[in-house]
Design goal:
Blueprint: H1 16-23, H2 28-36, H3 41-48, H4 50-53, H5 75-84, E1 93-99, E2 112-117, H6 123-130, E3 151-156, E4 160-164, H7 176-186, E5 190-198, H8 205-216, E6 221-226, H9 233-250, E7 259-260, H10 269-279
Parallel strand pairs: 2-4, 2-5, 5-6, 6-7
Antiparallel strand pairs: 1-3, 3-4
Length: 284
């Protein structure tokens, strides 16, 4: 089951002359992305399709339940998504406002996605990486867990809104449950919830609580594995297999494919941008 409107086949990534020729017809952002496509093949795969990097470590009979290519956009689709995340005079990307209650949240008609996760999971760092093509957008990142205390709203042109939610667990806001549960239940234009899990430690008790909440509210959600630059290949593979098994057996509303990312190396960031653009209807 592929996302609608996308041309399948990460294999096409390595048809370099044809891909680069097509991208050369796009604007300057795609020209920058074309430079990314000139990276060595292994480095390129790790940057754009990090989940497929672990595929070669799996035995053939272990790949059947390992969902690698459900969302498998072409390089052109990834370039289109990068354009959406690029700030220009005609595509303003801005912080809008913050809110501690749903009735204080801005009334924005465009589709919305939100990011939730444990304190210190790297949520604000990930959002800052997603907005790296709009450097004037200020996303506050702190080394101290629990820095985000409010729901922070960012608009991406006329396309969609990104919401940075407070972290749960250590140093979570006192009104976290009321704030987040009410938002998730009542925000009508919420298209997808991105639930961040630390790839180093895997799913924790508080993550299970958040997953149960998404399931109870029948929300479509995605598990994003953060900090993959801090895990060895063997440890990352172990975590991916354990979490994939959990998703297959224990969830109904979770998108079956995991999204490993690093806000440090930018591995998986391009693919995640593309998925956000797709689920908000911007790549149809």
């Amino acid at each position: 089951m592929a996302a609608p409107g996308l041309r399948l086949g990460a294999e096409r990534l390595f048809e370099m002359p044809a891909v680069l020729e097509r991208l050369s017809r796009y604007n300057s952002t795609s020209q920058a992305f074309a430079e990314v496509l000139r990276l060595p093949k292994q480095q390129l795969r790790k940057l754009l399709y990090p989940l497929q990097e672990v595929e070669r470590f799996l035995a053939p009979d272990g790949r059947q339940e390992f969902h690698l290519r459900i969302f498998d956009p072409s390089p052109e689709d990834i370039a289109r998504a990068d354009n959406i995340f690029t700030a220009t005079e005609r595509n303003r990307i801005d912080y809008v406002s913050s809110a501690v209650r749903i009735d204080h949240a801005p009334d924005l008609p465009r589709p919305e996605v939100c990011f939730i996760g444990r304190s210190n999971v790297g949520k604000s760092s990930l959002i800052k990486a997603l907005f790296s093509l709009a450097p004037e957008v200020e996303v506050r990142v702190s080394k101290k867990p629990g820095h985000t205390k409010k729901m922070n709203f960012f608009k991406v042109g006329k396309h969609f809104t990104v919401v940075d939610m407070p972290g749960y667990g250590f140093r979570a806001p006192e009104d976290f449950v009321d704030m987040v549960e009410t938002y998730l239940k009542e925000r009508r234009n919420l298209k997808r919830t991105f639930l961040l899990v630390d790839s180093v430690v895997g799913i924790q008790k508080t993550d299970n609580t958040a997953i149960e909440m998404c399931e109870e509210f029948a929300l479509p959600y995605v598990i994003v594995l953060t900090k993959i630059d801090k895990s060895s290949k063997g440890h990352l593979l172990k975590q991916v297999l354990q979490i994939q098994k959990f998703v297959n057996m224990k969830t109904q509303g979770c998108f079956p494919q995991l999204f490993p990312v690093s806000a440090v190396t930018f591995s998986g960031i391009h693919l995640l941008r593309c998925f956000i653009a797709s689920v908000t209807g911007n790549l149809d």
